[in-house]
User: What shape does this take?
Amino acid sequence: MNLFEKEAFVTKAAEEFENQSPEAVLKLAVETFSSLTLACSFGAEDVVLVDMLQKINPNVDIFYLDTNVHFPETYDTRDRLEQHYGTKFVQVLPKLTLEEQAEKFGDELWKNDANQCCNIRKVDPLTDILKNYDAWITGIRRDQAPTRANAKKVEYDVKFGLIKFNPLAGWTSEDVWNYIRENDVIYNPLHDRNYPSIGCTHCTRQVAEGEDPRAGRWANIEKTECGLHK
Assistant: This one.
């Protein structure tokens, strides 16, 4: 598709599929794009999409950004999902190891410049992997954050120049957990310990009762997104 065709597809699909189920949106993605991938962080939303996608087309690539500083529980969730579905997730690593990053930018860059750290360990690797695809699938929901409130189920990702599918955009957290329970989906046990949103170990903390679900991400600094979604 050229840019005009992509924009026309997005405009039509976003309207037609606004009230459709996540499975319907995933089927549209699978049937329209042979070069398609799912970005998985092993959070609640993403394991739901993994389960749905395995039932629709288990051959679609699923990748994860391995920052080298995920929680042990996150890596364990990856391993259990791979074993359960008999699949292998694509590991995407930063160009710099943690040691090389420290040598170049100083120790604990995540404290001194969280944005730069996210760029090195997440945004740049995502940019590299997405060059191999025409479309990608994400687990973002509109009610997760004000920055995501206007997300459409099908949209054109200007930042990466490809079609972006957000099948769960219209779902609530309750919808996600209902699906997990009803389908016995494997999930990250940190969710049971007051970690509703899970990122890297250095930049994620438990959320207290009454706090915003994303309050545990980049706490005490003016940052709410890692830069993957704009």
Notes: Residues 223-227 have pLDDT under 50 and may be disordered.
